[in-house]
Amino acid sequence: MIINGEKLNFKELRFIDYIQEKNLKIEFIALELNGEIVPRDEFENLVFREDDKAEIVSFVGGG
Questions:
Q1: Can you tell me the distance from the alpha carbon of 21 to that of 35, in angstroms, rounded to the nearest whole number?
Q2: Residue 36: CB partners within 8 Å, gap ≥ 6?
Q3: CA gyration radius, the chain
Q4: Which of 2, 27, 38, 48 could disulfide-link 31, Cβ–Cβ 3.0 to 4.6 Å?
Q5: Of the candidates 49, 53, 60, 63, the residue with the CA atom closest to the CA atom of residue 25
Q6: Cα 58 to the center of its chain, rounded Å
Q7: What distance in Å separates the CA atoms of residue 62 and residue 15, rounded to the nearest whole number?
Q8: What secondary structure does DSSP assign to 40-53, as a single string?
């Protein structure tokens, strides 16, 4: 799988585990998986597979 341009060697990886490892806050991210935007209500049960390509965008507030 490729996540944000980084090749990872896993057969499967839970999305929730990945974002926790990266210290991302689920309420501030958007996910594109294989060219499709993933609805936030699907995040909890989502599992990346070895052929997946994902882009995760984290929103940062500021003034």
A1: 23
A2: none
A3: 12
A4: 38
A5: 60
A6: 10
A7: 26
A8: GGGGGG-EEETT-E
Q: Is 16 helix (H, G, I), strand (E, B) or coil?
A: helix
User: Distance between CA 55 and CA 5 in Å, rounded?
Assistant: 8
CB 25 within 8 A of CB 34: no
Paired residues of 29 in beta bridges: 58
Q: Chain centroid to CA 31: how far?
A: 5
pLDDT per residue of the chain (63 residues) written in tens, 0 to 9: 999 999 999 999 999 999 999 999 999 999 999 999 999 999 999 999 999 999 999 887 665
Six token digits for residue 10: 């896993």
DSSP secondary structure code for residue 27 in this structure: G
